[in-house]
Amino acid sequence: MAELWTDQARYTTWTKVEVLATEAQSRLGRVPASALADIRRARVPAAARVAEIERERDHEILAFLAAYCEDIPDDSARWVHLGMTSYDLVDTAFGHTLARACDVLLTAVTRLRGVLVDRAVEHWDTPCIGRTHGMHAEPTTFGHKLAGFAFAADRCVRRLETARAEVAVGTVSGSVGTYALIDPYVEEYVCAELGLGVEEVPSQVVSRDRHAQLLQAVATLGACVEQIAVEVRLLSRTEVREVEEPRTAGYQGSSAMPHKRNPTTGERLTGLARLLRGYAGMAVENVALWHERDLSHSSVERIAVPDALTVAHYQATAAADLIAGLEVSPERMRAAIDATGGLVYSSAVLAELLEGGTEREHAYRAVQSAANGVITTGGDFTALLGAEGIDTGPLGPERFLVHHDVLLKRLETLRGHQA
């Protein structure tokens, strides 16, 4: 991912666009075959040479063209960039690079989805406590938790695929996008060769709402990864210890406290999600340009777009590694279910009373009274219910997983899609 965004990679792509545009002009009979041959043979200019010329001219595109034409005979160099304006080159190359970057990112997110699916299936029948508001609620399974994350990753894949299609476009339409000095065939040829669509009505630049959509999708991916990371962090706390991040043999968690085993990967992923949300906001700010174009978006994009895609790729990769190596403790999970003496089965008891014909308010108060007794005195929930005249029978997490097979079928469908 990082290699796509180097100066040298940018000039390599710019060179490709210039050659394709010259090929199209040659097909139209506007550029001599000999000049096309010279332009094709020319080397990609070195980034250092472009920077050297740019210091004199204060214009990167003109500096690139000057450096590029140093390797082309003068009679042929005059045909380079024929009828084009700067952003015909910049935005068409940008679309090509964005498409490739999206493909790299999609590979990482697809792997994350697959890891989540596999571990969800692995722990489908591993009971754990569900929590709402941070408090014990009802039993679920750890596989159920992971399956929710897997479907979120799947939605991220689909959002990124849609966004890729929107940014994989170019325009070779000349100043203010009117094709006054360049035949639309050149645009069609260049974009087709690069696997790009064409901006329907160009204004000289590709519309920035496209890039805003991509960075919104990236920010949403970051938030979904953050959700996974936060769950791992919460379940890793000393008093919980239901999961633990994978550790190296030489792991050291603190410079002062040798006992520490901190969820630092999850914390890192959480922080990076904040960065991605910031970049998404910048992309929205870039949509409104003055008239047919200005350059207010350019300085932002040079930082925000490469950084956002690189951060997102790192985040998705690290999250997949985290889940793949996550240490899970079914024993601690079962202990958490049993820790409150059966309180987490209160809803099952209430439902059974209602189905048996007990009036709702009376049933609720009776179960709540027994629950409050457990909370205040530490008694046994079943025994206190018995004192209220309620016979519960055996209580266990299985009573909450009666229809779990429906969810498993959905997960297996996603697994088949993944394959």
Describe the structure.
It is a single chain. The protein is mainly alpha-helical. The chain folds into three domains: 2-82, Fumarase/aspartase (N-terminal domain) (Fumarase C, Chain B, domain 1), CATH 1.10.275.10; 87-334, Fumarase C, Chain A, domain 2, CATH 1.20.200; 336-418, Orthogonal Bundle (Ribonucleotide Reductase Protein R1, domain 1). The protein contains 16 helices and six strands. It has helices at residues 7-27, 33-41, 47-57, 60-69, 74-77, 86-122, 142-167, 184-193, 209-235, 264-285, 296-324, 330-338, 346-355, 360-377, 381-387, 404-418, and strands spanning 127-132, 135-141, 169-170, 197-198, 243-244, 327-328. The chain has a two-stranded antiparallel sheet with strand order 1-2. It has a two-stranded parallel ribbon with strand order 3-4. α3 (47-57) packs across α4 (60-69), α9 (209-235) packs parallel to α11 and α13 (346-355) runs antiparallel to α14. The chain starts with 6 loop residues before the first helix and ends with a helix. The relative contact order is 0.11.
